[in-house]
Amino acid sequence: MRKLILSALLVAATSSLFAQKLEDIQNQIGKKNYSDAKVKVDAALNDPKNQSNSDFWFAKAQVYNNLAKTNQDTTLQAEALAAIQKYFELESSKEESKRAVKSALEGHQTAFDIYSNYFKTGVSAFQAQNWQQAYNNFSKSLTAFDLLTKNKLTNVTFDTTAVLYAGYSAQNAKLTDQAAQHYAQLADIKIADTSYMGIYEYLVGYYQEKKDQANAQKYIDLGKSLFPNNPNWTAYELQGLDGDKSKKIAKLEEMIKQNPQNADLLMEYSVDLFNYTYAKDKPADYEKRQEDLTNALKKAIELNPSYAYAYYIYTQHLSNQIYDLQQSRGAIKGTKPEDVKKKQDMDKRIDALVEEQFKYASTAYDLYDKMGANIKSGEKASFKAVTNLLIDYYTMKKQMDKVKVYEAKLDTIK
Question: 3-class SS at 220?
């Protein structure tokens, strides 16, 4: 019996000591003697017996938060956040009606204050373009916000502004993974505001860089559904297929069916199809691809008759067709009437292609010539190529006066 009485007395004495220490700390907090309160709360929490007492952690959060505001001390602010997290963690084991009473009595001011201080510090760093510091603070403000939502201290479920600022700060600080993480949070809630359109483009580029085409396509599709008038989605979609020419061409064909009057789309298709068709290893359906290329280029020119590059590509397409016929003709070694007839037929087809090439080269030449000083370096290479075709044509026709005109022009294209 005596042992039980002594134990009860010890428990009572310990509880009384806890209460006395807490009361002493709270008195210092009430007087705003935060430095003195810090010494006392640190001493209390250095005692392992106090580690499981949530009231000491709440007192620490109050003290460290106020000292952090006064001294602009990020270390103290981080300690305040850790302390309030520990407080709510310990309180979570209690019945809901008895949970977080200390915080509730002050209207959860400390918890909200910690969030607010991180956000305000983040804004100041953001305005100063100190992107790393801005990101650190917005990231911490989101951690504090998670605490508020998890413990039902606010009805707001998503901090749009802090997430956007965290993403933008991370992007400018070259923290691409963190920027993508925050932008994805915003993208996934589908905010149909054009000011948010750039985050979808960022995510597409980010995932394409990571070779993650599934996620890249996810954000292309989301972007298209929210901002259908943005022409960049098509370009992004095609960029993801650059490593597989046949898939890209198939995708372009699908797009052209949906947009048959889009000259730019037809030109992109034509260029890719040209490179695919005339690669070192020819496709199995080589002749079909040549026919498709002819149709695409003619349609592109029909839609945009002043597109010099389309005429230039067509002249190169014809050069390949002429070469193919010349090779086939050279392979006929016989002298039988049927062999002679084949050669004559091929000669006619070659002549027809040469005349067609001359027509397209002449138009391309005129369009490039009209550009004058505005011609770009890449266009100059095409201009030279069609000029050389015209020189070859007039040389073949023995019209040397024309040859001299184009040779003189060629010397001026620098």
Answer: helix
